Structure formats: structure tokens, C-alpha cells
Amino acid sequence: MKFYQLAQIFSKLEKTSSRLEMTDILHKMIKLCTPLEVEKVLYLVTGRVVPKYVSLEFNMAEKMVMKSLSLCFSLEESDVKKLYKEKGDLGIVAEYLSLKESSGKKDMLVNEVFERLKIIAQYRGKESQSKKIEDLSNLLKTLKSISCKYVVRIILGTLRLGIGEKTIIDSLSWVVKGDKSLRKKIERAYYLCSDLGYVGRKLVEDGVKGLDTIVLIPGRPISPELSQREKSAEAIISRLKRAIIQPKLDGLRCQLHKWVEKGKPMVALFSRNLEVLTHMFPEVVKGAEMLEGDSFILDGELVGYREETGEFIPFQQTIQRRRKYDIEKKAGEIPVSLFCFDLMYLNGEDLTLLPYRERLNKLERLIPQNFELSLKVVESNEVSETKEVQKLFDTYVSAGLEGLMAKSPTSQYQPGVRNYDWIKLRRSYEVRLADTIDGVILGYYKGRGKLTKFGIGAFLVGIYNEEKDEFQTIAKVGTGVKEDEWEEIKTNLDKIKVDHLLPRVNIAKELMPDVLVYPQIVVVIRADEITRSPLHTAGKEGDESGFALRFPRLEKFNRPDKTVDEITTVKEIIEMYQH
DNA sequence: TCTGCCTGCCC
DNA sequence: ATTCTGC
DNA sequence: GCAGAATGGGCAGGCAGA
Known about the structure:
7-stranded mixed sheet, DNA-binding
């Protein structure tokens, strides 16, 4: 298949909003491919050249791609940037620039483009940046304009077709069966092996029976089960009737594998997105080696934890353990434990099809209660009353935890699935507990993708520093805004546009908005937490860092009842932070 | 050798 | 991570 | 309710250029 054909199909998909229709287009496209092409196309549509558990990235994002476009089409970088701001999509910019160069462009095979992209991804070390830029530029010179659009988007990982893994899985079912009845089966195979290209190729080569060889193997990560959110204890009980309740810890999701190879115990750790974490947490690896049980796969949350005091360490510190160097040193400063909550495999047996209650029992037998080597089983309570859930929630929240997880005691472990078998209730979903601030808009940024048409995709929010008598930034906000609100915000802000940074407004250069405005419009911002910030200027004193909001979102645009004199102050933020 | 920019990956 | 939108 | 696509703060590490 020619890449050009693929690009045309992408173009058609992009114009389609009905998922049924997208599935139809996609499955017909797959039918046109040879098995090897299927494999490659499926990697490409997920913005990769290898399955996601293999760590080969393009290491090329918007800045690098802009450089490549400027080289390819002999433009100043500033002009490319201008076009990007205007069109909100570097793929569209590439297509536009390529179209202006009318000379006859060649067609390339999907396979060729795939190989060229793989080469680009593989460059590393000295001069790798310029090689990537040059290779992409050469590739774009060869391709037709519509192909340029999608090549650029593949590299950026934003194909924007409205097609994700789930839709691809449905399409694969259609390829084999003519309907979506195979979805569950394909989905399970995929989430067990985490290689969509392989699953696609196997299906096309051997049909459904091709999937039978895909089973749980210790050492190979599976996609973790995910949770839905709920807003109250009541909603949880109304969905689950009975639930196993656990504290929600603020760390990194981690899957632990242990197996035996050549008589030696092996251990591997994987992140939520199947990245290898093994070498970063030696204390957890040692713990797993000491544990009885030759082979198992378990699921848990890695979190900074001081055994002596029972104190949990904040996420901002725990995450510093995700590193390549100085591991032992950091391990001394920030010890972690893996708080386990599920067991998917034990001594040769796949446990995923057992009810959760049974998996949990086996887990509790595997890890002794007082096991001290950085491995613990998370506390569980099985309840059926709303007030029991509420009580546990209050307990966990007052202990400074994120909230709770509620799980159906009878559900299987469904890799990669996000449904109401697992429900999270976060501290911040409760209005009375969330941090809310009144801030003033200091400027806004152009939007990308589907927000391009509004000319705004985020805005910068400041609070007031009474000591320095200036506005300082505390968050960028780009979520919680409805489409008509985007329009309203843009209109309002454009009326108070200023063409230079005003005195008494303190913004770090990295956060400088595309459009600055007069500080006048007051907004209510909700957040989960106040954190120290290396970037935002709120409360910043010399070398001391400022403050920022964790997970900021718009609660209310334009509070006409409040004026700029009444917005949240740095002093108040510091009080909230210390609380 | 140091530093800033950029990217990828955690949440 | 949160949130919005079309189906 | 699902699936996808917008958007956030902030950490470490690689590379290029000073």
C-alpha cells in the first residue's frame, strides 16, 4: 500500500464523527493491507514505530518539527511558528507549505515511510538532533502534501483522527468476523501483550485462533485495570452494593513481576504505561526477591513512605525517585514502599478470571502482614453501607491521603479496562474540601487542534501579592471550559488586550502568554492542591520557589461580584498551603 | 564544564 | 491528572 | 456511558551551545 492511500483514508476518517462509520472505514482499510502492513499501520496510528512497551520514542516534538519545517521549506523559524499559532496544527502547516511547492512529489510505500520514521526515531547522541531534523525534512520533500500532514502528526503523536485503541479493536473484529462480537476477545489479547501491531497481524494471518497463544507471562507487562470516578459515597454504594474499600495513595502505579530464569529469581517493575521502573526502586526489587513464591504478578501503588513513622511522602518528592542516576542516594532520602492491591498471577496460574475478593485473599497470604521490605498489602474493608464508605473516606482524607478506591468484590481483573468495577472517590471531588481560589486573568494562549477555531486554549491566572503590590502567576488553566465559554472569554479578553507587559505584573518568561490583558477579569479556579513551583511567581522570594495549583480547572468564569481588589492573596495561599 | 531548552513521562 | 463533546 | 481530544504542574535526562 502506498502511504498516499493511507493518508487519504486518514483524511476521510478525520471528516467523520460517527464512530460506527469510522470503524467501517478503518476495517476496510485494514482489509487492503498485507499482514505486515497491518502491523506497521497499527503502530503508526498510535504514533509509534514499535509497541508501546518498547522504549523507542521520536524525541521530536513541536520545536524540533518546526525546525525541520523551516529547513524543508526554507523559512525562518519565526514564520513557521507564526503559521503554527494560526493553524493550531503542525501537520496542517506541513501540508500547507508542501502544497505551495508545486513540484511533482513522489509516492512512497507505507513500508518505506515506516522505515524512514524508524531511522529518525533511532538517532541518539551527538548530532542526533540535526540528523532527525534533516531526515524529516528530506522525507517531507519527497512526499505529497497530504502525506506530509500525517507524517508530521504521527511524529507528534497527535493524529487527531478520532481513532483510538478501542475503535481499532472494533475494526479488527469487523475484519475477522464482520461485526464487533470479537471485541472482548481481541481486547483481552491486546491488553495482555500490549502490542496492537502484533495482535492485528496475528488476526489477519491466522484469524481468531491466532490470539490463543497470547497469555499472561511474568516478565511481560499487561495493561493495568483503570477506574471510573464518582462524586459521593452514596453513588458508590448505589453502583456496587457491596464494595471493597481501600485508601487511594498519591504515588506511581506499579506492576511487579517475579519469575525464575535459569534457577535465579528475576524481578521487574512497570509503570502505568508499561515503562520499565525496575532499576529505580532497588528496595522493592529486593523485597520481592525475599518473598516466598516463585512467580507472580501484582499491582500496586509505589509511594514514598517512612516505615518508622508511618508517614507518606508527597508526590512531588516520590516522583524524584523516577530517575536513572544517583539511585541509592535518593533511595536514602526518599524511601518507597509498594502498597499492593491486586494479584493477577501466582506460581504458574492466571488469577485474572477469579473474583477480586479471592485474588485479594491470595495476595494477603503471599505478603505477610509484617513484611518489612518495602512491600505491603494495602488496607481493605468490605462494606455495604453508604455511611461506612463515608467514614472511611473521612478517615483517609484526614490522614492526608487522596481519597479512596472502591472495588467490586466479584469482578475479574480486566487489563486495560476502565469501568465502574473500580471507582475512585477523590478528596477534590467533594466541593467542601477542594481548594478554590479567586484569581485574575493576565493573558491567554492560542489553542491547538479543535480549540484552534476559538483562538484560545488556555489562560494565565494570577493572584495578588500585597507586600510587593503586584500580580503573580499561580496557574495556567485550559480545562473546565465549555465551548461557548471559550468564545465568551476570548471576546472579553480581547477588549482589554495590552501590547506589553504591564508594571506590577510578574510573569516568568516560559509562561509568557500569546496575548496579554489588563488584569480585570476575576475567575474562580478549582484545584486539588497547592504545591511549590519552580516556575510560577506567586509567593516567589529570590531563590525560594513560588506556589502553583495542582490540576487547576475553571470553576466559574467572570465573577462580576468580585473586583480585582478582592482576589486571593499570596498570604492566603501560604495559609492554605500550610494547612 | 556548565546551563538552558526540549522532550517524555509521571500525576 | 480533569474536563468537555458527539454519538 | 464510552471514547477521544483538549488542557494542567513538574520531575529527570539528553543534547547543543556558551
